[in-house]
Amino acid sequence: MQTLTEKRVFGAKTGVTDVFVATDAGLAAVTVSADQIGAFGLASREPATAVAATADRLVVGTDDGLLAADIDAGSRAGDVADPAFESIGGDAIGSVAAVDLTPEEIVVADSNGVVYSSEHAGAVAEPPAWEQRGTTDGVRAIDAGLLAATDGVYRIDDDGVTNTGLTDVRAVTGVGQPLAATADGLFRLGNGWQSVADGAFRAVAADGHGHAHAVGEAGLLVRAAEDGAWTTTTPPVEAPVVDLAADRGIVVGVTDDGTLCVTAGDGWRHQRLGLPGARGVAIGGGADGS
């Protein structure tokens, strides 16, 4: 919990960042400042199956399709986002299993394993045109051109989707050196997939600057940017962490019981959101401090 002093100076020097959590109760929007957790509330009350965000756009998967909203975090002075969602899946996309969002395109997989992509079409009120890229088996996550599925890691390329190996993949990151969290261990992509640690892993995230985090049976693994060495630490809470994200100088994780965990490099803080059935977490934009 924050002290009264922390609440008074929240965001003043380090700025604020939006964090979005997909849960069975809806989409939670949380404002954080470095490792301090501030205001939070429901941005959508429709059960969310997946979430992705950039500095100016938010995309949410549901059992009934895909929602998107334009956001302007920098103009809100730290208030929790209140986005106006539009349905953008059209007739092509039904129940969403995973989604990824870059400044250039949206990539989404439905519950049948069909993968679609679309270039951004300006404001979300302009419906995108969807291109079917391929089909996989049991999609769990999509990140930076890679897809985690029950039958392997797939690369999304001009030819569609291409299986690159591994099995029972729970999470993947394509930021920097690709990493995959699987039922058998944590792997990095070098000359093929190479083992980093044994045991079942649930989530992995990297920031593109050499830092990476992964969580599983072995605990919380942290890769240092300086030498690439991995160290094993204790997760910040006892409940299982189901997803991780890293951007804007912070790492966030969410547990299956809806506890948000945040670190800016000097230790973890956590806050119970009271929203069970968490599925995923994404870091959006923010406002710089004074």
Number of helices: 1
Order of helices and strands: HEEEEEEEEEEEEEEEEEEEEEEEEEEEE
Portion in strands = over 45%
Which residues sit in consecutive blocks of at least 5 with pLDDT less than 50?
A: 1-12
| Spatial order of strands in the largest sheet | 3-2-1-28
Give the topology, please.
Blueprint: H1 4-9, E1 16-23, E2 26-33, E3 36-44, E4 50-53, E5 57-62, E6 65-70, E7 86-87, E8 96-101, E9 105-110, E10 114-119, E11 131-135, E12 139-143, E13 146-149, E14 152-157, E15 160-165, E16 169-173, E17 179-182, E18 185-190, E19 192-198, E20 201-206, E21 212-216, E22 219-223, E23 230-233, E24 241-247, E25 250-255, E26 259-263, E27 268-272, E28 280-287
Antiparallel strand pairs: 1-2, 1-28, 2-3, 4-5, 5-6, 6-7, 8-9, 9-10, 10-11, 12-13, 13-14, 14-15, 16-17, 17-18, 18-19, 20-21, 21-22, 22-23, 24-25, 25-26, 26-27
Q: Overview of this structure, please?
A:
The protein is mainly β and 290 residues long. It has one domain (17-287): TolB, C-terminal domain (Neuraminidase, 6 Propeller), CATH 2.120.10. Helices cover 2% and strands 55% of the residues. It has one helix and 28 strands. A four-stranded antiparallel beta sheet has the order 3-2-1-28, with no helix packed on it. The chain has a four-stranded antiparallel beta sheet with strand order 4-5-6-7, with no helix packed on it. It has a four-stranded antiparallel beta sheet with strand order 8-9-10-11, with no helix packed on it. A hairpin with a 4-residue loop joins strand 26 (259-263) and strand 27. Residues 1-12 have low confidence and may be disordered. Residues 3-283 form the HVO-0234-like beta-propeller domain. It holds the Pfam family Beta-prop_HVO_0234.
